[in-house]
Q: What sequence folds into this?
């Protein structure tokens, strides 16, 4: 087999893995969008916030330590205990639920019925707010996150491919774990929205607020639930990306990675998010592999957007999105 | 008592349709112009120019540009940073290629080039709408920044990848480079801001502006009553990008002097200008000024209070700044979607009746 083709195969495999991670973030967007019509720009910052909170709790950091020290002149930084990963994850989830309640109570409740673009801009404000709060709470230095997920090259794949192609593929164990978890998460979410009472209520709200309200579904509860689920997805994405590249500001930029995925797949479709993620993941890695050196490299920064843009011109609702019908 | 139409009789159509029909408004406008042109240049120093006045003037131009697109035409754009970069790099290429030509012409040409690029990236707006379009403009943001970072022709093959503004003058007065006096840079930017504001104000109350607003309020309905959406949307993109390009050129050549594109014209800049427009007021020229002034002042005031007065570390103050800006955006969207400009309008309504409200 020609060497280039083998390299390309490795690139495609890595692209698929990256695509799964993009899809994971995109899922959080789709969930909130479907249930409340809000395009939540803050999803990426929520992932950052979740990952920072998780690290902070695991290491026993005192929240707002820097601020307290600056105001009162004290020198407290750590409680002096370490929390096991599983307990910390549960505690972080509790924080995310609290956050969901606060967002619903103080922001979204006041913006019901506004135009989508106003809601979008409100979530940009929310993203700034959360980023500032996260930095104030836990400090802005780069942190490492280790909840015991396997990392490093997968030797089995390396050996097997070496036997077949005379060239070992480099696949990170973490990416494989992420793929499995993402698949489980999607299955769980689909099952939740199809078969449970709350899931059905959520879909009803998505269909028509007023009608859902009139059959006795509590909008408040559903929205808090939706934001909590999005917080949960953000937590999972935060753990994955945080383990991969450290918990730092750039984590919040994954939201920007997920946007073209959504445009490609359609904002309203869970399978769309996954297929879109895979297309973008493979597309940008292949493009970089084939044309990156000729163009000066780092084409990943814009390729996804330009692809989505060109695609949208021909199909404005995305691959799986609902058809946009406009009336005067 | 002072702010009222009573007794101010208009005897010609020109009087009736002037920009500031109320006498008090008109005099206030003349006073502001007189102070800005006649007094500030004589008392300005480097600190005031670099910390407050230059950023305010330049951001105000950018905010007017974005306000035309978002506030008047309803097409949300997140690519402002990228378009500012186009203006900056166009200005740089022109400055280095034609050293003898006046800076005025360079800056205006840079705006023209940006307008052309803006129209190119505005073309998808004919097919896609709302936040699909907002996300699509991010393509412009990322692609343009990447382009200026990676193609050496744009930064004249300099080793650092930065662009540095060479010393250029207008009528013998140095405008760019480290030796430019504060008053000259200030006046140069002020002239551009004044002209841009007058153009924008008159465009938005004429036919062009009305077609933009018709498209914003309901594009299909506008189409039915005979507004050409192609023309309206693309002119909005062109005019908006023209202003944004001018502000980018000034930001690079006059204010910073040296630019690393990813750092200066990144996505954060797009959001900053968008925030100015939201806080100032969507669809208001005065709002663009107010928003720019507010967001330029806020970090400076916070730094004065937090770092210099209370002695807090700078990073905490920077984070607090983020929290406050985010909270303000949400508060304005909830409480006063028309921003500071609306507060100003309400104040003027109250003034009309003062001191005898019904």
A:
């Amino acid at each position: 087999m020609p060497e280039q083709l083998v390299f390309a195969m490795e690139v495609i495999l890595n692209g698929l893995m990256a695509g799964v991670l993009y899809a994971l973030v995109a899922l959080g967007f789709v969930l909130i969008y479907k249930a409340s019509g809000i395009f939540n720009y803050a999803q990426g910052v929520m992932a950052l916030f979740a990952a920072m909170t998780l690290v902070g709790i695991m290491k026993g950091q005192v929240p707002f330590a820097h601020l307290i020290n600056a105001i009162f002149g004290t020198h407290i930084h750590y409680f002096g205990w370490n929390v096991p990963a599983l307990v910390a994850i549960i505690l972080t989830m509790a924080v995310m639920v609290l956050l969901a309640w606060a967002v619903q109570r103080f922001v979204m409740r006041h913006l019901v019925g506004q135009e989508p673009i106003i809601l979008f801009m409100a979530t940009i404000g929310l993203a700034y707010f959360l980023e500032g709060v996260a930095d104030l709470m836990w400090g802005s230095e780069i942190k490492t996150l280790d909840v015991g997920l396997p990392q490093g090259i997968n030797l089995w794949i390396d050996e097997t491919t070496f036997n077949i192609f005379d060239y070992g593929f480099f696949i990170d164990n973490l990416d494989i774990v992420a793929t499995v978890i993402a698949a489980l998460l999607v299955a769980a979410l689909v099952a939740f929205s199809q078969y449970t009472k709350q899931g059905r209520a959520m879909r009803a709200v998505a269909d028509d607020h007023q009608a859902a309200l009139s059959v006795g579904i509590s909008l408040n509860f559903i929205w808090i639930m939706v934001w909590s689920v999005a917080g949960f997805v953000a937590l999972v994405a935060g753990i994955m990306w945080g383990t991969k590249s450290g918990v730092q500001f750039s984590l919040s930029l994954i939201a920007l990675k997920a946007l073209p995925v959504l445009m490609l797949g359609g904002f309203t479709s869970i399978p769309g998010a996954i297929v879109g993620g895979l297309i973008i993941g493979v597309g940008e890695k292949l493009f970089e592999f084939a044309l990156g050196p000729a163009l000066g490299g780092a084409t990943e920064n814009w390729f996804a957007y330009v692809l989505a843009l060109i695609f949208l011109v021909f199909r404005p609702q995305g691959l799986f999105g609902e058809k946009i019908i406009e009336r005067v | 008592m002072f702010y009222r139409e009573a007794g101010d009789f208009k005897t010609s159509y020109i009087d009736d349709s002037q920009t500031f029909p109320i006498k008090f408004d008109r005099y206030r406008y003349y006073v502001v112009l007189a102070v800005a042109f006649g007094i500030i240049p004589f008392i300005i120093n480097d600190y005031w120019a670099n910390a407050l006045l230059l950023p305010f003037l330049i951001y105000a131009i950018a905010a007017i540009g974005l306000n035309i697109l978002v506030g008047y035409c309803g097409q949300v754009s997140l690519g402002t940073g990228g378009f500012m970069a186009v203006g900056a790099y166009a200005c740089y290429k022109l400055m280095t290629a034609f050293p003898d030509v006046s800076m005025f012409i360079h800056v205006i040409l840079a705006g023209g080039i940006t307008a052309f690029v803006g129209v190119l990236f505005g073309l998808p707006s004919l097919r896609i709408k709302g936040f699909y379009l907002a996300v699509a403009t991010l393509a412009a943001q990322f692609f343009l920044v990447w382009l200026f970072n990676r193609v050496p022709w744009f930064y004249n093959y300099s080793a650092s990848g930065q662009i540095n503004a060479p010393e250029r003058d207008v009528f013998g007065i140095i405008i760019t480079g480290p030796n430019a006096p504060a008053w000259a840079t200030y006046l140069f930017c002020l002239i551009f801001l004044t002209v841009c504001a007058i153009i924008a104000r008159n465009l938005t109350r004429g036919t062009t502006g009305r077609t933009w607003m018709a498209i914003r309020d309901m594009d299909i309905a506008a189409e039915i009553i005979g507004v050409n959406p192609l023309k309206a949307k693309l002119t909005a993109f062109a005019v908006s990008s023209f202003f944004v390009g001018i502000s980018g050129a000034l930001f690079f050549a006059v204010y910073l002097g040296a630019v690393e594109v990813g750092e200066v014209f990144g996505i954060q800049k797009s959001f900053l200008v968008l925030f100015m427009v939201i806080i100032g007021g969507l669809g208001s020229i005065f709002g663009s000024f107010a928003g720019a002034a507010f967001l330029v002042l806020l970090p400076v005031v916070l730094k004065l209070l937090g770092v210099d007065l209370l002695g807090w570390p700078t990073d905490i103050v920077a984070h607090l700044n983020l929290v406050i800006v985010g909270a303000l955006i949400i508060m304005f969207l909830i409480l006063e979607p028309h921003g500071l400009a609306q507060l100003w309008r309400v104040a003027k309504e109250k003034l009309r009746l003062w001191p005898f409200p019904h």
